[in-house]
Structures are given as structure tokens and as C-alpha cells.
Amino acid sequence: MLIREATTEDWPAIWPFFHEIVAAGETFTYPLELGEEDARDWWLLKEPNRTVVAVDDDGTVLGTAKMNNNHMGNGGHIASASYMVDPERSGQGVGRALCVYTVEWARSAGFRAMQFNAVVETNHHAVRLYRSLGFEILGTLPEGFNHPKHGFVGLHIMHRAL
Asked: What is the pLDDT of residue 21?
């Protein structure tokens, strides 16, 4: 698996699984009806932030990550990131590879920590992955997310020093 900078030419491969994940409404706080143009603008970040794709040997996009400063100004030393893996590629290490990549990017870019603002507590795979990579749950916003199957569930704020 290769992780490389995403380009606008990658978007047609990202959009189908991006749309599927967002429309399911189980893991992201994005609007369920998010349109393709807005989605592309939200996901494909401009420098100094970055968006990458994980591709296989044939160049097939397996997943994607965006990484950015979590806040601006005096809070600009904390990074954040978001990840989407094609559900057909789940369990193949794509999410872990993307997460490790973003942590290394943040460290090399001079960030002091990485924070995830809204990890849905029922997203057990993500919570387990992030914890295995050194992230801690700082707190949970009770009923901060209206899950389509579980109703109102918490949103974790997760953090890792770099």
C-alpha cells in the first residue's frame, strides 16, 4: 500500500465510499445529504493542510485522510485528522496506515499534539485503533451525536501528545 498526496483526479474514486459513509450517518457529523461539490471542497484541503489517499499496487484508492491544524492562531499548534476507508477494504490495515501517516505528518510539521474533536463512541473500531496508537479519551459530550441505530450517543474528544 502506498500513501500519497490526493489530487482532484482521485475524487471520482473517493466520492462513492465518502458518500456511502456520510449518508449512513454513523460516524461523521457531516450533513447526511452532503452534495458532491461541497464534500470535495471540505475534504480536499489546500496547503499547509493535506489530503492523502492510500492506494494498492494497481492504483486503486483504498481510503483517504485529511490532516489539518485543529484551531487557528494561538491554538494552531494542535493537529487534527479525519479518515475514510472504502467499506470494501475494511479490516485490511488501511485505517491504521492512514492514522500512523497523519501522526507522523503532524509530528514532522511541528505540531505538539493531535486531537480528534468528535469520535462517535459507538464507532468501536476507530476508538480501539486510536487508543492502540496512543490516543486517550479526554472527555465525552453526552448525547452529542444522533446515531441512526443507537439514538443519542456520546462524542469522544481524543488526544495524543506528539
From this structure: 97
